[in-house]
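Lab manual, section 2.4: Encoding a predicted structure.

Procedure: take the sequence of the chain (73 residues), apply the prediction step described in section 2.3, and record the output as structure tokens. A sample record is shown.
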Amino acid sequence: MMFADLVDMDDFRQRLLELGIDLPADTSPERCASLVRAAQPVDGLPELIDVLCADGVTLHPDVRRAVELILMS
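Recorded output:
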């Protein structure tokens, strides 16, 4: 769910689902990043990461961790 400019794990999972990556509910940031990396290449993922890292977007700490781990791959 998204409140104001906060992107939480539910919102992140929904955005990834729109890209074709289905994540189970209550996925840890580490597991999320692992599943995203395993699904590579994913059309639209770089653009999604750019949007999430843009100024003015507040990420839930779990989403921030998942994004950091995805970028490390």
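Check your result against the sample. The chain has one domain: 2-71.
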